[in-house]
């Protein structure tokens, strides 16, 4: 059963229940179905059919929800893009996915227009907040569309969402999730977290991230709870909403939880209605776990997943929640810890984490050669290093890949290195993640200048801010005479991390 069919079942069971509230707008499950039908038919009229890619490049809104659900109904594939991305980043994703359409807003329209001439396959720009020359108004498309259900056969192995992620080299790769990858995982989460119709869910995660779309939104539309959707996370507003609206469920990343603890007068907010706080997308430190327990009287439930597989592990709802561990496997998921020869290692021994299950993708978009390297006898080689204890709790020690996770968002070093190395004063550079108490990791750039060239730390940071989303700019810049490399010229990034630790 596909994602849209799963959502339809919920709407048939709870047609008149309010599904989502967004900025004073309240929409029922039945109304979401009708609006999704209109969106699906509008896509179809534009020539966007099953298998075509539709990029989403706009902040949280009901219009975005309708588009996403419309994509699922007509079989077009969702390609989420971070709303902070600039030209270089969106050009790669739109080009690599061969997106036929992009859904965006007036604020980001100039960025799209700047890359449009390089994207012959991008035929349609759909604006959610008006109309400009060369674009379609989403409002007008919906007005001129029928709410009749489309007859499109959706199979379990059909693609549903392509999340762009990356390793240590090259540009971001598209992790193509099937319908079954998503539906199996949200059913597993419903079971593991006792997610129920009577939950009141506060959703402040961005709907361009797997945590926001795959886990939160898709899970809520399947379970049938009432969701209060916010455009963005604001710490004071979260606590106020929990207190006033009797919220029972909240999902966040560690950075959000740090900010909640920083709210002045936190003790005045009544959070007695809360059933479950969930944390993911970046490691939750033991220190933060215990600070939250003291402040809220709750043990935050930490889970772990990845763009390639949705969620893999979760601390139990009933049972011990171990700080520093991401818990046992979710229902249907299997895990192995192996050595470099892919032999299983003993309990408590560190090794490479391999996973298998209905949630695990089949491979990266248009990367058939690379896909052969990331699967071993049907098991996905995650690139994470970890161990399992005698209770089957998984501990993720680190990553063999050098992706930097800052505030729950993946940052790809090669992208930043490319930008810095485009500066005329720079000979070469290497970017690594270094420990950050609030964000988990922050970006540090080690830079080698050309002979006689001069450059200040602030100049590098400001240049990156102009070319990339602000969260990718380095927090630290250090200038070196040479970068550490092995005899084959490979960068020794671990040496650079050690250099920072020595500071």
Strand content: 25-35%
**What CATH first level of the largest domain would be assigned?**
Alpha Beta
**Low-pLDDT segments, ≥5 res:** none
How many DSSP E strands? Answer: 25
Helix proportion of residues, in percent? 25-40%
Structural class: alpha/beta
The mean pLDDT is 93
What is Rg?
23 Å
The third-level CATH topology of the largest domain is Rossmann fold
**Helical stretch tally:** 15
Domain module tally: 2
Largest sheet: 8 strands, mixed
CATH superfamily of the largest domain: ANL, N-terminal domain
Global geometry:
globular
Strand arrangement within the widest β-sheet reads: 2-1-11-10-12-13-14-15
Using the 3D structure, state the CATH architecture of the largest domain: 3-Layer(aba) Sandwich
List the helices and strands and how they pair.
Blueprint: H1 3-13, E1 18-22, E2 25-28, H2 29-45, E3 53-57, H3 62-74, E4 77-80, H4 87-97, E5 101-104, H5 109-116, E6 124-127, E7 136-137, H6 138-143, E8 159-165, E9 173-178, H7 179-193, E10 200-203, H8 211-223, E11 226-229, H9 235-245, E12 249-252, H10 254-261, E13 276-279, H11 286-296, E14 301-306, E15 310-314, E16 334-338, E17 351-356, H12 368-374, E18 375-376, E19 379-388, E20 394-399, E21 404-406, E22 409-411, H13 413-421, E23 426-436, E24 440-449, H14 457-467, E25 476-479, H15 493-501
Parallel strand pairs: 1-11, 3-4, 3-5, 5-6, 6-7, 10-11, 10-12, 12-13, 13-14, 24-25
Antiparallel strand pairs: 1-2, 8-9, 14-15, 16-17, 17-19, 18-19, 19-20, 21-22, 23-24
Helix pairs in contact: 1-2, 1-8, 2-3, 4-5, 7-8, 9-10, 10-11
